[in-house]
Fold these 3 entries.
Entry 1:
Amino acid sequence: MLSYILRRIIMAVPILIGISILTFSVMHLAPGSPTSMLLAPDIGPEVRIAFEERYGLNDPIPVQYVKWMGAMIQGDMGYSLVRVGMPVSEMIMNRLPNTLILMGASTIIAIVISIPLGIISARRQYTVTDYSVTFGSFVGIATPNFWIGLLLIMWLSVNLGWFPSGGTHTLNEPFSILDRLHHLFLPALVLATADMAGLTRYSRSSMLEVIRQDYMRTARAKGFTENTVIYKHGLRNGLIPIITIFGLMLPSFFAGSVVVERIFAWPGIGDLLITSVFQRDYPVIMGITMISAVLVVLGNLLADIAYAIFDPRIEY
Amino acid sequence: MQQEPVNMPSSTPPEPGPNDPKLKKKPDTLTKIILTKFFRNKLAVAGGIVLFIIVTMAIFAPLIAPQNPGDVEMDLLNRLAPPSTEFIMGTDDFGRDIFSRVLYGAQVSLLVGFLAMLGGAIIGTVMGSLAGYFGGRVDALIMRLVDILISFPNIFLLILLIAFFSPSVGLLIVFLASLGWMSTARLVRGEFLSLRQREYVLAAKTLGMKTNRIIFQHILPNALGPIIVASTLSVGNLIIVESVLSFLGLGVQPPTPSWGNMLQSAQNYTIMRDAWWYPVFPGLMIFITVLSINFVGDGLRDAFDPKMR
C-alpha cells in the first residue's frame, strides 16, 4: 500500500514540472519584458542594466526557470505588481479558504442530488423515470453554468429576494453560520450543476453494472428486501468507480469555480485570478495557475489512493 | 486476400455485416449502414435540423436580422423594450435589437467553435499519428504532453495565455485549438496501435509503400469515425468555453456581439429586475446550439459503433 502511494506521488511530479514549464514558457514568449513592465519608460540605460543584472534577467532561460521554480517550491511566488509589497502567496492564502469552502459545499450538493438520481435511474432502466433522468443530464451538460447562475440570481435574488446575490456574508454584522450558509447556497448549487450531469450518468452506469452481478441475485434469493439488496449490497460496490470520477472531474470543478466566483462576487482565487488579469498583475496570475495545478494533481492523487483503499480487488 | 476497406470509415472487419442475413442481396456499404442508423435516431435528426436552422440563420444574418449591429446606434426610446412583434427578443440597455445581436453573435460563436475544433482535430490527428506510428520515444514524449495538458483545467492555461497576449478572435481560435487536441490524439494513437499490426498494413509496408501513404491511405481512414464523433462533441464544449471567456470579458470584445459578452452586459441589477429577456435569450441560444450538437454527436457515436444495431 505504502509503495503504491509513493509510486503515485512520484508519478505526479512530472505533471507538475510540465505545467510549471508551460507556465514559465508563456511568460517568456509573451511580448514585453519584465524590465519594461516594472520600470518607468523614461529610465536611463544604466539603471536598466543594473536592474537586469540584479534580478538575474540576463541569465540563460533554463537558469531563470530553475531559480523561479526553486522559489515557488519554498512558497515564494514573488510580489504583486498592483498592491505593491504584497506577497502573492499571502494574497492567495487569504482567498483560498473561500474557494475550498465553495468547492466542498458543491461536492456535497452534487453527491446528494446525483448519486440517488443515478441509482433510481438504474433501478428503473428503460422507464419514463430513466429517460427523464438521462434527458435531464443531457440538458445539464449543454447548459453553461454561468447562465444558470445568472437566471437564479435574477429569479431568486433580484425578483424574489430570497437569497443574497453575492459575497460571503452580510457586511457589518457579527459572524453567523446561518448567514454564511445563506450566502453559500446559490453559488455552491450553481457550481454543483457543472458536474451533476456527468456524475448522474456515471452513477447510473456503475449501478447498472452492479445490478446484473450474481451476488445481487444471491442476496435477493436469500430473501432480503429490494432496498437492502440495492443499498447494502449494490451501492457499496457501485460507489467505488465513482471515486475515480471525482478525481477526473476536479479540473472542470476548478474551471467552473472561476466563473461562479465571478458571478457571485465570491472572494476566492478564481475571482482574484480574473481581477489580476484585468490589472495585468502577472505574478498573481502565475501563482494562481501553479496553485490550481498543485491542487488538481493532489486531488487526483487522493482519489487514486481512496480508490485503492475502498476497492479490495486492487493489487498494488 | 480480402478487399481493402479504403473508403470505409470504421474498424469493422470488411465482411458482410450480421444485419443482412440474405447473402444473395448485395451487402450495403458501411457509409450507407451508418447513415441509416443515424437517421433512425430521432433525437440526433432533430438536433441536426435545429443546428442546420441555426447555422443557416447565422450565415444569412445580414438578410434576416432587422438591425445591423455594425451601425451601433443608441436608441433611447426603445431602451429595454420587452419582446414584441417589432423586437422579437426585446431590446438591450442601448435600445438595440437583441434578436439581431443574437444572430450576429451566432456567427462569431459558431465560427470560433468550428474552427477551433478543426484546428484541434488536425493537431490531434498529426500528434496521434506520429505517436502511434513511430512509437518509442516520440510516443512517450507526445503522450506525456497529453497527460500534462489533460490533467490540468485548461481554462487556466487559456486565461494565462490571454493575460499575456490579449488576443484577437483569430488568436483566440489558435489558443483554443492548441489546448483542444489531446483526446483526438489519444484516439488516433489507439487506432494506430491496433491497426499497425493488421495484415493489410504489413502488406503495404512489405510492398515498399511510403510512410505517408500508409498513414493517410490505409490507417487514418479507419480512424475517421471516432475522430468525427469526438470532434463533433468538442464543438459544443468549445462554444461553451468561448462563451465563458467572453462572459468574463476575456474573449470576444464588445461591440462585436457574442453570446457570452451579451450575457456579461446583462449581468446588471436594473436589467435583471426589469428586463428578463436580456439574460434569457443569448443563454438560450447557447443552450439550444450545444444541446443540438451533442445530440448529433451522440447519434454519430451510436451510428459508428459496430456493436449497436
Entry 2:
Amino acid sequence: MLIEARDLSYTYMPGTPFQVEALKKINLGIARGEFVGVIGETGSGKSTLVQHFNGLLKPTGGEMCVEGKNIWHGETNLRKLRSRIALLFQFPEHQLFEETVFNDVAFGPRNLGMSGSEMEQRVRFGLTSMGLDFDTYRDRSPFHLSGGEKRRVAMAGIMAMRPEVVVLDEPTAGMDPVGRRKFMEQVSRLHREEKLTVILVTHNMEEIARLAERLFVFNRGELVLQGQPAEVFKSVSLIKETGLEIPAFSELLQQLRQRGKEVRTDLFTVGDVAGEILKLSREERT
Amino acid sequence: MSGMRSITLGHYLPGNSILHRLDPRAKLMGLLILIAALFLIKTFSGFFYFGLFFVLTFVSSRLPWRYFMRGLKPVLYIVFFTLILHFLFTKGGQVFWRFGPLTIEENGVFLGSFMTLRLILLVITTLLVTLTTSPIAFADGIEFLLRPLRVFRVPGHEIAMMMTIALRFIPTLMEESDKIRKAQMARGADFESGNIFRRARNLVPLLVPLFVSAFRRADDLAVAMESRCYRGGDNRTKMRQQQVTCLDYLGVFTTCGIAAAIVLTGV
C-alpha cells in the first residue's frame, strides 16, 4: 500500500472545552495508481483525514504510513513528502499570490530548488496538463483570470511539482458545469496517462461514481463503508443515513431491478444507462 | 494549529453562572472599579483581600481552572520580565545578593513582587470578565460606556460596531491563514527555517492571499450591510435588549463596596 492509515485518530484542540473528535480509529489503504473517492457529509472528517496523508496534521492516535513507513517516526522529510503527495485545498484560487501566472506556478518547483530551463519545463508541464496554453497565460496576472481559470492555475501549480499522488479536496465546489467538466476531464486524463494516483474528496455523487475505482464513506469521524462505487451505492439505507445521496442513475437501475427487471446496477454514465434501458425494452418487445 | 491553541486569552466560554448572567455593562463597570482599586492599593494585605475576592468570584463562575491558566500563559513572559528588571535595577535598602556589578536589594525585591502581583491580578480579573462575556455583549457594553463621550463627538456606536466586526473576523482569518499556510506548505513553502529576513520574505505567499481575502470579505460584508439598509448610531434599536436587573445593581454595588473596603484596608 502506498498510503495507509492504521487506527488513525485525530482530536481538535484536545484538553480544552472546544475539543472535537474528528477522526476515530480509521483504517484504510490506497495503492499506487488508484483513483479513490472520499465522500461524507460536511464535518464527517474527510478533510481532516486527507491532511494527514502528507503530514500537514499529526495524528493524535494511531499511525500514518507512506510506503509502509510511519511518516512521524524517524527521519521522513516532510517537505519532500509534500512534493510527492500534493494536496489541493477547497477554493485553491485563494492561494494565488504572485504577479504572473508563470511565477505562481513556479513557486513549487522553485521551492524544490529548481531554476532556469528545468523550472520552465515544469511550469509548461503544469499549465498544459490543466489545458492552459503556456504562452497565452504565462505573463497574465492570476488575479485577473476567471474563476475557473484561477482554479486550473492553482492546480497547475500543484502539477508542476510532478507529484505521484494528488489529493483534491472538493476541487469543483462552486464552479459552473462546463468548468467542472473541463477540470475533471483533465484530472482523469492525468490519472490515465501519467498514472497519477488521485484521491478525490467530493459531494458530487454522480461525478465520483463515474470516476473513482474505490470509495470511502465517512460519517461522524468514522469510516462506515468502502468498496467499488456499484457496491457502495447498493447500501441505499446506510448511504442515506450518512446524509448523502445515491446517484440518480444508480437509484433508477436499482428500482428497475426491484421490479423484477434484469439490469446491471453498476453503470453511471448517460450512455451506458441509456444502452441498458434500450436493451431492456428490446428484450421486453420480443 | 499551534497558533490557534495559544490564543485562548479572552476566548468566551458559554456558561450559566451569576457572572455569566450579569449584564455586560454591569460587568464592565465592576471591572473598571476593580482596576481602579488595584492601582490604589499600596500594601500586600490589600492584594491578599483582593485575591480572596477574586478566588470567590472565580469559583462561582465555574470556569475550568486549567483552561483559565492556559489563557494566562502569554502574559507570564511580561510578568517574569517585570520581576527580573525590578530585582536587578531598583536599588535601595538592605543588599541581599551580590555578583560582580549586579546586586539584588531590598527595595527591588519589594517593588518587583508588588508590581508582579498587581499585573497578575489585573490580568486574571480582566480574563474573568472576557471569559464570561460573549464578544457581542461585550461590544454592547462598551457602546453604553462610551455614550457620555458623545458630547465630545466620540462615535461610540461606530467604535463598538468596529469592535464587533473585528472580533467576529478573528477566528475566520485565523482559519483562513491556517488554510493558506497549509496550501503553500503543500507546495513546498518553508515557514520555519532560515534567518529573520528570509523568514519575513517567506511570509509573502501567506500574507498576499490573506490580505486579498480580508479585502474580499470586507467588501462582501459592506455590500451585505448596505443591502440591509444599515445605518448606525441614533434611533437604531437593538435585537437583544439588555435588561438591567436587581442582580446587576447588586453586583455593581457589592463590587464597589468590596473594592472600597479593600482600598481602605490596603492604603
Entry 3:
Amino acid sequence: MGRYIVQRIVQTIIVLFVVCTVVFLLLRAVGDPARLLVNPEGSKEGIEIIRKSLGLDLPLWKQYVNYIKGIVTLDFGTSFTYKKPVVDLIKVHLPSTLQLTFFSLLIAVVSGVTLGCISAIKQYSIFDNIATFLAVFTRAVPGFWLGIMLILIFSVRLNWLPPSGYGSFKKLIMPSVSLALSMAPVIARLTRSSMLEIIKSDYIRTARAKGQTERTIIMKHALRNTLIPVVTMVGLQMGHLLGGSIVIETVFAWPGIGRLLIESINVYDFPVIQTTVFMIAVFFVLINFFIDMLYLLIDPRIRLG
Amino acid sequence: MNEIQLPQKEKDAKRSSFKKFLRLLVRSRTAMIGFIILIFLLLVAIFQEQFATQDPNKQSLRARMLPPAWEENGDPAYLLGTDQLGRDILSRMVYGTRISLFVGFAGVVISTVIGTVLGLISGYYGGIVDSIIMRIVDIFLAFPFLLLAITFVVTLGPSLQNLIFVLGFTGWVSYARLVRGQTLSGKEQEYIMAARALGASNARIIFKHILPNLLAPIIILSSMEIGLYIMTESSLTFLGMGVPSTIPTWGNMLATGRNYLSNAWWLSTLPGLCIILTVLAFNFIGDWLRDALDPKSTYDV
C-alpha cells in the first residue's frame, strides 16, 4: 500500500508540473499581452515599457524559468487591473469558491444517495419512477439556466432569497443548488444500480437469514459497499463541479475564483488568468488524488491487494 | 452455388437487422419522443426562414420588451414577445436552432475523428506511441472540460469557428479512451489473428476488421456528447466567450435575458427551454441506442 501511495504522489507531481507548462504555453500562444493592454494608438515605447515590466522581453525559456520559480515560491506576479499581487487576490476569492463547491457537493451527495437508496429499495414503485424521470430530465438542464430560473422565482417573484452576493447562508442556497444539479442525478442513478446489485449478493442474504432488521441490513451492510463506485464517481464529477462553478459564480455574482477568471479574461489580465486556470487545475488534480486515497480507506480489498 | 446465394443471404440479414432496429425504436417511447423532437429541430434548422415569423435581427423601438402574446399587452405579431431592442424572440430562437445543432454536430465530428484515429493507433500499435498518446490524454483530463475550453477560447479568440474547433479539440479524449480500450480487447480476438495469418496488412485489419466493431460504441458516445457540446456552447456563449453576440443563439439570448430578469421573464426562460428540449432529445436517443446497439444489453429480454 505504501508503494502505491508513493507512486500516486509522484504521478500527481508530474501531472501538476505538466499542467503549469501547458498553461504557460497556451497563454504565450495568445500573442503579446502588452499589445492588448495598450490602446491601439499607444506608442511603441509604451508597449516596450510594459513588456519590460512584465518580463515579456526575455527569451521564452527565461520567462518559463521565472514562471516556475514564481510558482514554487508562490509568487504569481501582480495583477494588471487590481495592481495587487495575484496571491492576495486568490486568497480573497478562494474561500468563497471552496464554500460554494463544498456546499453543493454536500447537497448533491446527500440528496443523490438518499434518492438512489430509496429508489433501489422500492424498485419500480411510483417514487422510483418519479426519481428516474427527474434524473433523466435534470441531466438536460444547464446549471446556469436553473440558476436564472431560481432567481426569477425566489428573488423576483417571491422575494424570499437575495438574487446575488456573498456572505450569508441565504445567499449560498441558490448558487449551491444550481451547481449541485449536474451532479445529484448522476449520483442517484449510480447509487440505485449499485445498491440493487449489492442487495442481491450472498452476504446480504446471510444477514437476512440471521434475522436482522431490514434497516440494519441496508444501513450497516449494504450502504458501505454501495458507496464504493459512488466515491469514484464523485471524484470524476468534481471537475464538472469546478468547471460549473465558473458559470454559476458569474450568474450569482459570487466572488470566487471562477468569476475572477472570467473578469480577468474580459480585461486581459494575464497574470490573474494564468494563476486562476492553474489553481483550478491544481485543485482538480489534488481532488482526484484524495479520492484515490479515500478509496483505500473504504475498500479494504485495494488496501490489502 | 455458394457464391450466388451469399448476396441474398446478406441482404436478408441486413433487412432483418434494420427491421429489428425499427421494432426496438417503436417499442421505446422515450426514443420515439427523442426522434420526433430531433426531426422537428432539424426541420426548423433547415427551413428557418419559413419558421421565423419576423427578421430575427430587425429592431423595433415601438415593440421593445413585449411579453408573449398570451400575456397582457402581448402582440400576436410577436408570439413569444420581444427583447430590449424589439427583436422577435420566436424568430431568434428559430435561428438559434441551426447554430446550436451545427455546433453540436460539427464539434462531435471533429472529436470523433481525432479521438478515433489516436485511439486506434494507441490501442493497435501500443508501445511508446501508446504511452505518448495516453500521457496527452492524462494532461487533457487534468483540466475540467469547461476550463480547458475557456483556456482554448482565450488563446484563439471567440468566434463561431473557433468555438467548434475548441469543443472538438477538447472533447476527443473520451473517444480516444473508448476506442483504445475496445481496440486493445478487439485485436486479441481470433478472427484478427486469422486475418493476419492470411497476410492482411495492418491498415486492412484496422479499417476492415477493428473499426466496424467500434462503430456502435462510437455512435452511442456521440449521441451523448452532442447534448454536452450544445450545453457547453451555451455556457461559453453565456460567459461571453462563445458565439459573438451579434449572432442570435440560445446562449446569447440567455446572457441578455439575465440582465432583464426583474421585468422580462420570457427573455431568459424560453431559450433555456430550447436547450433542454434539444439535449433531452439527444439523451433519449443516446440511452436507447446504448440499449439497442449493445449486444450484451438485456433490452430484448
